[in-house]
Fold these 3 entries.
Entry 1:
Amino acid sequence: MPGRTMNFLFVMDPLSTVKIEKDTSFIFMIGAERRGHDVWYVANDGIHLTDDGVSFDAVPVTPQMDPEQPFVCGERQPLSQNVVDAVFIRTDPPFDHRYLMNTWLLDHLPPDVVVINDPDGIRTTNEKIWALQFHDLIPPTLVTAGEDRFTSFLAEHRKVVAKPTDGFGGQGVFIVEDGDTNAGVIFETLSDHGQRAIIIQRYIPEATIGDKRILLLDGEPLGAVLRVHGDSDHRNNFFAGGQPVATEINKRDREIIAALQPHLRRLGLMFVGIDVIGDRLIEVNVTSPTCLQEMNRLYDVQLEDRVITFVEDLVQTRKREPNVA
């Protein structure tokens, strides 16, 4: 246990949207409260910046595994940056202007306050585009707003996956085959008639088996789960009806993790979810990675304890050496 009670703040969507059986933010709150820390909820409009630094409109909450009352909430009150130990940025995508503004405000926190994940790292890492620098890890990929380039790529690879650059939960993900009469309509819809770049990747046949979500803590594997789609939908995401299946982290997964690790650490991306299909990296999720509860149930573990302990240790290191951040 840490030497003192800490204040853990969670910047996230409204508490009323939390699904206690799935939500990773919720289980982090449970873990922090179990370790004796004070847990605070901060709405997306609850971060402020003045000459005195960053402050928060924060609600003290006691999370509990009760579907009828998952949170016991106190009165909203102001919290100065001077009493905050750690901030978890857990707002769901998309990474819009509100999300961007919050990262700018959180940049002004003193270095001894731990932020999971680092605001600058979140800004740097588009969850679908950032991974494209690792050419030997990803499938052939095109990012474009040009329909002619889309058509040529489709003709070359015969079967592709098309998706928006800022989607989440499987929203807007299409499988397109060469000769499909809907191909043009799909491109027009996703790209807003060529006004917005989209991502097109060669289809990976192993997608029929599922896609693997691997959670990383400070660049090290925390756990993994295979997300498997149902009979009526090609998407493996849990939001789209996918189901969790136990899996292992294999040699290729570890090669991918090793390639990403130094970059994630340099960017301060401490809690990350990577998606792997077959032997290819698809996405690097840094905004509010999920699937921790599914792993807990599959393997009968409490992975949130490892995350909270990691944050405790980091807080204590920062308090002793604030310039380490």
Entry 2:
Amino acid sequence: MDLVPVYAEVTITVKTNLPSGAFQISTGKQQAIGVQYGVVSYKAVVRTLRAVGRLTFDETKIVRIHPLIEGWIEQVSVDFVGKLVEKGQLISIYSPELLQSVRPNQSSR
């Protein structure tokens, strides 16, 4: 076993105003792990990544709606996947057939 000389500890100033969870690395360790400093600049990214894949729907989250009346969808209130909805919030339907079946209030009674 080789003998390695031990020298007195070098005094290092430590910043005490670091945020919680942060730590300080000495300059010797920064050089050992390859930390580099530079000036920030904008430049175009020219690297292209090509990959093969398949895009499909999540079959467990598809819902089919079968209304019992004819008409068309006027408004869809869900604007992104995963939005929490409650009963009656998905769509509003315009149906002439449904409007004909509703009788106006008769005030002669």
Entry 3:
Amino acid sequence: MERVSPCTGLCRIDSDTGLCLGCARTADEISMWGQGPEENRRRVWAELPDRRRRLGLGLHRLGWTSRDVHTFIASALRYGGGTWVSGIYGAVAEFSIGNDEPIDLDVSESVITAATSRGAIAFRPTPRIRAFAFGSSPDPARSDVIVLAIARAHAGIAPGDGLNCAGQDGEAIKPEGRSETLYDFGLGSAAGRFGIRTARSDLLASLRRHEGLRWPMVLASIGGDIQRASPTRVVRNPLGRLEVFAPIPPPGGVSPEGPHTHFLPEQLAAGLDLPRALEIPDVYVPCAVHYPAKASPLPPDEAGPGQDERKV
């Protein structure tokens, strides 16, 4: 039986309350978590929401097994199921499903994929997946922002600075994309490897000439070509990927509802994986963020639809 711990990776006991400022358990509860009857663990889980309120904690680990996470992902991939966001602060892709929009959904033990004409998303859940939430709802699957993450030690190493060719994208979600060439912008974060995929010979020639250059130089030189060609944008993470097929809006344009990308230089300069309001302990790599249907996928300190942004 999979035994889930409330530990968030932030382990510090508050001297006034005797509770951990990461998980809200006592030192004795932490040391004895893997021992004793299951009833004791259920009692502690039931008490944690009230303890977190007393401590003023927003971030918490959900008591979800990997099976629970699998079930949540599959159930959220529907109209009204909210918005998924993958990438890093300043370079993200979003995926959601429109009302009555046709969707190709494939759910198996090892992979979950959902694809529409505007975008696609793939998850490869593993026992190493961790589910964090921001909020205090009795039903976090309905009203809390949820971050799916993996321990940084298991996340792998992202490409360093500079545009690099990843070759034919054999892991593309739709078969027609698997013969196209994927270029990665080399943003240097395992949380979100942002790239573009295309079969257009003219764009591929331009990309080859700029291999090894950092993204500001690439966009300054051929950003207009990329916008006009509107290639598929691909964000890869340790648990899967998110692809956006919808056209890139022109400069000054408004991001469409549904799948789209944001590439915001000012935010990239901060060097964060997530907005500060959603930061999780550094021992974890955030892979995908789920915003419930009534929550904005962009916190107030981020550029929202209609604001000036660099379109990629």
